[in-house]
Design goal:
CATH architecture: 3-Layer(aba) Sandwich
CATH topology: Rossmann fold
Number of strands: 4
Radius of gyration: 20 Å
Strand content: 15-25%
Distance between the termini: 42 Å
Helix content: 25-40%
Shape: globular
Number of helices: 4
Length: about 160
């Protein structure tokens, strides 16, 4: 059986300090081991926005280890999908099988709750993209354990009722 290589995804926004960084993080979270996720900006900022760091930290992802990158920092490969957010009118010279533009507002100036809403929108869009690419996330360990415990109890109870 031939193993399929990971899907290569790149998320691009203007500064690579909010939207594309969060999208890359979600792709890494939901597609762990099944995707190569990258992000970049047309005009990269100097640092990741503190609100993006805080918003992703709420979900258990540490964006502090990320740095804004420009398009020239990306590997010279063909991507399966290039997703742009807020890059209207810019020519991106990235090799890709598919291109998508997501109309996601820049959350930089938003208050905390609207910022979280943008984060959650990006998370849903990444999940939808991974589903279309047939990259299915594994259930979290806690969910798997929650499924196993009732199953184990049912098997144990069935054994007692049948006199085993």
């Amino acid at each position: 059986m031939q193993s399929e290589r990971s899907k290569r995804l790149v998320f691009v926004c203007v500064e690579n300090c909010n939207r594309s960084q969060m999208a890359e993080a979600f792709a890494r979270m939901y597609g762990a081991g099944r995707v190569e996720a990258y992000s970049a900006g047309c005009q990269p900022a100097e640092c990741i926005h503190p609100k993006a760091i805080a918003a992703m930290q709420e979900l258990g992802y540490d964006l502090r280890r990320h740095l804004p990158k420009g398009l020239s920092d990306l590997p010279d490969v063909q991507f399966d999908v290039v997703v742009t957010m807020g890059c209207e009118g810019r020519h991106l010279s990235l090799a890709a099988k598919t291109r998508e533009d997501w109309p996601v507002p820049c959350p930089k100036e938003l208050a905390t709750e609207p910022f979280r809403a943008v984060r959650d929108l990006i998370g849903r869009k990444v999940q939808e993209l991974l589903a279309r690419l047939q990259v299915f996330p594994s259930p979290p360990v806690s969910s798997a354990l929650q499924t196993l415990v009732p199953l184990e109890n049912a098997v144990r109870n069935r054994g007692h009722s049948s006199g085993i």
